[in-house]
Amino acid sequence: MSCKEISLNGKWKLINKERNINLEADVPGSVFYELIKGNFIEDPFYGTNEEGVKWVYLDKWLYEKSFSLNDVQMSKKNIELVFYGLDTYSEIWLNGNFILKTDNMHRTYRIILNGDRRKFLKVGENILGVHFDSSVLKAHEYLKKMNYDQKMFEKYQPGYAIPGVETIRKSYYSFGWDWGPKLPDIGIWRNVELKIFDSQCIDNVYIKPEILFADDSSRVLKAFFEIDVDLRRPNGENEWLMFKIFDPDGCLIKEHRTRGKENGLNVEITNPKLWWTHDLGEQNLYKIEVLLMDKDTIIQKKSFKAGLRKIDLVRREDSWGETFYFKINNISIFAKGANWVPVDNFIQRGREKKLYENLIHDAKRANMNMLRVWGGGLYEDDHFYDLCDESGILVWQDFAFACKPTPDYENFADNVKKEVEDNIIRLRNHPSLCIWVGNNEIEEGWLYWEFKKLCPHLKKNYVDIFEEIIPELVSKFDGIRSYWPSSPSSGGNFDDPQSPDRGDSHFWDVWHASKPFSSYKKFNSRFMSEFGFESFPDIKTIKMFCPSDQMEMFSEVMLSHQKNPSGNEKILKYMRDRFVIPDGFWKKIIVSQITQGEAIEFGVEHWRRNRNENHCMGTLYWQLNDCWPVASWSSIDYFGRWKALHYMAKRFFNPMLVSVDDEKNKIKIWITNDLKEDFRGVLKYEIFNFDGDKISENSEIIYSKKLESEIIKEFDLKEMNLNKDEIIIYNSLEDSSGKEVYRDAKFFRTPKSIPLTDPKISFNMEGESKLTVSAEENSLFVFLYSDKHDFICSDNYFHMRKNEKRIVEIEWKEKIFDKEIVNSLKIFSLYDLLK
Q1: Measured at the alpha carbon of residue 481, what is the angle toward residues 479 and 482, in degrees to the nearest 5?
Q2: Rounded mean pLDDT of 286-302?
Q3: In terms of Cα–Cα distance, which of 399, 470, 382, 480 is closest to 437?
Q4: What angle, rounded to 10 degrees, do the helices at 355-365 and 382-391 form?
Q5: Is the pTM of this model over 0.70?
Q6: Of 51, 338, 380, 391, which sits most exposed with the smallest number of CB within 10 A?
Q7: pLDDT at 218 over 90
Q8: pLDDT-derived band at 262, boundaries 50, 70, 90
Q9: Shortest CA distance to 524 belongs to which of 621, 443, 603, 613?
């Protein structure tokens, strides 16, 4: 007696009868990815090839596989066929018999092959076929039924997207977005398996940590795991459950067997080790095994990693309005991070390229403690959440809806219910998951956009789904996490979702409204969950999609890889505001990235200074990553190359931040301490003029309270007979052991107005991964670069004072290290870009 899970992954046939295509395909996978690998189409990411592959997503496709069953397997009482991801409209056939239609890429489909359906199976070879229809054509069918105001619809539809994705349950970004191509994929994109068992099997397990703290401290009085097991069938006479709990060091600390029909366990953990975000502590993960037993025989075993942690969304009335922040283990946390979009238009390729591992690793390196999984993308693979669990990064999870009104046709709401239930149950055991959010920007769309003119009859459907159905399901299946109806929102009911005084905010005056960086200071958000600024990707990335004769900002190819209307014009406009536009395409690319970094830095530093009394408690910029090579708001481009912004993020997301603010003739030096301990150390700051003359030098012992921002030093420029536009302030922070924990510099005039002189920068390599950078004069935006090889530095795009030396660690992405790689490394500064 056992419960066997037989994988049907691996090699399938992919067939397009109309075009006489028949090839071997991998599952999980997709049609587009297989056609690329088989050279049936040119890479849609290169040049303007995106436009030439429309036939792929308009055609019908068949996946087919044979598998065998023996007499013993066929004799079992229960056989289930499980598809964990079908994209999107399909019919499933088994041995020539129709068994199911699917219409939602986000759902798990379980097909019970018992009773009358058992005859569809046979001993020996079985043929399984999945016939896919075009999601685009289906969406267009539904559009005709949507009763939209047609003139308003034509005005409302952006040119960068295929119309209609909101009418079906498929990832919105796949139809095109203002950073992504129109490449809606098709196929079996997640695992397929047969589940074969007799009397029962484990369906799912819910692991709820419960912690009792001493007052408002993080000292634990008691800690428990409550484990509930959902079994597919009632307990058999001789069947029981065994629970094993292993501590984070791998030692078995608890073993318990159930009695009778008991399907759960509430167990106290002695000497508990808590799970924290990486900036506050260790990522302690307990291993929990649940074994379904028949007498002494194991029928089935499920294994999970779980964290002991308590997460709360704190909403409390205050003098500004209402707080919006997270507490982890009774510690208020300032969320620092970015918005996450799908790693590739063709997800399986992203998996194989290790994009999940690389991006989560790089987010942690940049001191991020939260990622927002944006609603126009996916409920990500389990592996994504595993990586966040292990890395100590919280996950803000949008449900998969974004920016468009939801339809009200028959069965749509029921489809959504099943999707939501599937994904809550799948993801709820992850300690990194901190909140469920109904959608991205749909609530504000009803207030501020054209929805009320386009389709006023659909407003009630919004309320039904996001303010009734989904919150009820979250409460039922995951009662330990908060639900938030939309992002941005003030709490729902269409109550000013962009209020700076309550809820979360999206702020796009900088960029979309072309306002200056200083506009960030005029919006004191409670939690800034989306704001951003565009730049171009690395030149090496551009060379991978753009022919050399097209390397110009407004060429056909470059514009095809810029999906935001007037995006390149806007990049150039902001560059021109700050810099002299340099000659040479590569230099323009770098200046665009520096401009992007400056913009986001300006906002983040302001909001982090406002953390006191929980006024502002989060900044998540748009966006961390790209799904293809493109000019966008990302800080890491599609090929994993860090833009200047990502290096700057590593500094401005440092748990110990020194920021300099100017107010009329006052200069204020702030310390922001996001640690859960007070900080004692030494603050050093030096003031230079742009001729390289040192005006003053100071060193002070400082005491910084935990979880606070405060002004450490304030000086009056008039009293010092100084003009802020003529100075640059270099600052550094050392802890009590003398270790440097932060270093940066601040100037107050536009870079184009600074009289630049040759800073005579250089570097000396010390082995393969360490170098010393030297500057004879003040130098702005010093950066290391190779036009041939990829690497990540411990710091880059930094400022150096006169006669400074700085150690930089370097990690090469190539596994083979040789002299040629070292020789490709060059050093530059703003002087080299603009001279």
Answers
A1: 110
A2: 92
A3: 399
A4: 30
A5: yes
A6: 51
A7: no
A8: confident
A9: 603
And the tokens for 508?
């796009």
CA–CA gap between residue 692 and residue 87 (Å, rounded): 61
Q: CB 181: neighbour CB atoms within 10 A?
A: 25
Task: Kindly give the pairing relationship between strand 286-294 and strand 239-246.
Answer: antiparallel
> Which tokens in the block code for residue 761?
């920068």
Q: Which two tokens stand for residue 214?
A: 């001493």
Query: Do you find a cis peptide bond into 623, omega within 30 degrees of 0?
Result: yes
Q: How far, CA to CA in Å, does 325 sit from each of 315, 497, 503, 525, 654?
A: 7, 16, 9, 11, 19
Residue 786: beta bridge partners? Answer: 825
Tokens 């989904």 locate to: 470
526-546 per-position pLDDT tens digit:
999 999 999 999 999 999 999
User: What angle in degrees, to the nearest 10, is found between the helix axes of 382-391 and 412-427?
Assistant: 40
CB environment 479-513: b (16+ within 10 A), e (fewer): eebbbbbbbbbbbbebebbbbbbbbbbbbeebbee
Q: In what order do the strands lie in the sheet with 708-716?
A: 656-663, 666-673, 708-716
**Residue 347's pLDDT is what?**
98
pLDDT of 236 > 60? The answer is no
252-285 burial by CB neighbour count: b if 16+ within 10 A, else e? eebeeebeeeebebebebeebbbbbbbbbbebbb
Is residue 468's pLDDT more than 90? yes
Helices H / strands E in the chain, number of each: 20, 44
Q: What percent of the chain has pLDDT over 90?
A: 90
What does the mean pLDDT of the chain come to? 95
User: Which residues on neighbouring strands pair with residue 300, listed in sequence order?
Assistant: 292
Range of lowest pLDDT (14-28, 86-100, 163-177, 222-236) = 222-236
Mean pLDDT across 743-767: 94
Residue that wins the pLDDT comparison between 432 and 217: 432
DSSP letter for each residue of 31-65: HHHHHHHTTSS--TTSTTGGGGGHHHHHS-EEEEE
The pLDDT tens digits of the residues spanning 695-707 come to 999 999 999 999 9
How far are the Cα atoms of 215, 217, 249, 308, 332 from residue 312, in angstroms, in the given order? 15, 14, 27, 14, 9
Distance CA 331, CA 350 (A): 35
Amino acid at 355: L
Tokens of 188: 């079996």
- pLDDT for 292: 92
Q: What are phi and psi of 174, to 5 degrees?
A: -65, -25
Find where tokens 């004879």 sit: 776
Cβ atoms within 10 Å, residue 725: 13
Q: What is the CA radius of gyration of the chain?
A: 28
Q: Which of these, 383, 3, 325, 45, lies nearest to 195 by C-alpha position?
A: 3
Question: Whole-angstrom Cα distance, residue 368 to residue 791?
Answer: 20
pLDDT tens digits, 639-665:
999 999 999 999 999 999 999 999 888
d(CA 617, CA 313): 11
